[in-house]
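Changelog excerpt

This revision adds worked examples to the README so contributors can see how folded entries look when concatenated. The first example is reproduced verbatim below.
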Amino acid sequence: MGFRVKLAAGSREFTVEGSEPILEAALRAGLGVPYGCSSGNCGACKARIVEGRVGRLRAHDFRLTEAEKLQGYALLCSATALSDLVVDAAVAHGAGEIPPQRIAAQVRRLEPLAGDIVLAELLTPRSSRLRFLAGQSATLELAGAAATLPIASCPCEERRLHFHLRRGAGHAASESLLGALRVGAPVQVAGPTGDFVLREDGARGLAFIAWGWQAFAPVKSLIEHALAQESATAIDLVWVAASPAEHYQENLCRAWSQAMDNFHYALLAATADPRGETAAAIERLAAQPERDFYIAGTAQEVAAIRALLAGTGVRADRLSTWSPA
């Protein structure tokens, strides 16, 4: 049985399942609540329980003052819900509200996705997880190699950070990192950076346009975040690649479509069709009811898509864009 938790500021809600910590449930729902150690030492996740009852899951080193206890404060990492709750907790609504961090992570696995594209999964310590918003990037440093890459996972993945790299594609930073990465190797993670994040000014349909293999990683993070929030009225994805082989997570797109009635996607190959089919797909999206557009690709590709959308009447304030560093 789960209990509903509503944030005092705004209308955001999430569910605490069983005896899971309130913090874990909030992160699973894709909410950017503040936290630090996640183990009761730092106090960063301290919040006031406005309504309802909570239970303490474990002892914690951070000490709440007597005044804070009387006002109903609790550490969200160390408390669970015993009833439906109203919680007064700060939530990051923009990239500028996330502080810079530096974390020592470890390579958990390296997995080929398709062709020469590799998934690198990093695991952060329980006491020091990276706080970021979906769509942001981080800098990886290992054995003298460094690269700033989009985080391909959702913040709801907790300690697991996913990055997509490619061998032999003229991406020097990616090649350098792949040459040094080994399962179990320590990696310094610095960030987050970037403002390619979901807007929070209303529940609209979401349209994602990813051009190229690099562009899919930040778009994937945003889509998974939107799915966790369950607030979008519809989600559409157009993924344009140089060849069908670059659609390296086609199965994931298919799974999203099968799991959700309001998710639709199109995988297009730019070389097979000289932008005509791509333009038609984008124009079809623009003809749908008002929605927010998230465009990822090189600066040239983003500019072309922006011009196409402007020609259909899509307002510039409905567009967010990302290009590789």
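The second example, added in the same revision:
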Amino acid sequence: MLLPRVIRALLADLTDTEVLEVSRWHSLAGEPLPDDRLHTRPPSQSLHPDSTITSILGSTGTPGLLTLAHRGVLTVEDLPEFSAPTVDALRPALTDATVTIATAGGSVSRPAGARIVFTAQDCPGRCLQVADCRCTAAQRARYLARIPRWLLARTDLFVQQVTVAAPDPSLPSLASVRDGVTRARERARRRWGTTPEPGAEARYAQAVAGVPRNAIRELDDAVDLGHLSIRTATRCLRLAWTLADLDDWPHPSIAAIHYILAGRQRAHQLLRTPAPR
């Protein structure tokens, strides 16, 4: 998968504290260290429709894939093919970046703060080209409707198609983009007092502080009308702050918030269009 590899490549190297944390979980899972060294790059893991809930969450003695992807990237391939209970097992990681394994004697909690990338085909036939697809509109709609609403509310960015373009020397290098991501994370750390973890919830009052009133009016209206929950509005604001940090702006712009809301609306229209009878 191209997109998860690009996201991982853009992430900064792990800090010394993160290196020890990530290496510890992989050591507990019995995985050999890369080249007999500690993990210095963000980890990468993948889930498939046949992945078991135990492999995803782990057991009392062994970390699962959600924890092994902590501080890295987790790819969930062919999302509509997953069973509802398996998808629901991801909810704690998307809600508060943790997983909990219940036992007769109590429970064990572990971190699960990965950037989670969900992928899905447009139809159950897995056609690569629209012109080759023989699925009906109703079949496609029912297939995409298997993606639960609660998961859509916890997803920040929606990309309908990823294409590979020819190399363009005018574009910035991967190293320079990664440096920009590192600087953006430092700006976020200075603002929030800590680097926001993927999946960790933020408070609306915190996210809205410092944002110009005209930039949040549309979000407030959407919340008042019931089109967005406070949780989703907060995620939109946090993403807007990320865009501002990447561009070294003092605060999110109204254009950024319009972009985020438009992308969310397009995704909901695509995934929630009623199936023709």
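Reviewer comment on example two: The mean pLDDT is 84. The longest helix spans residues 174-192.
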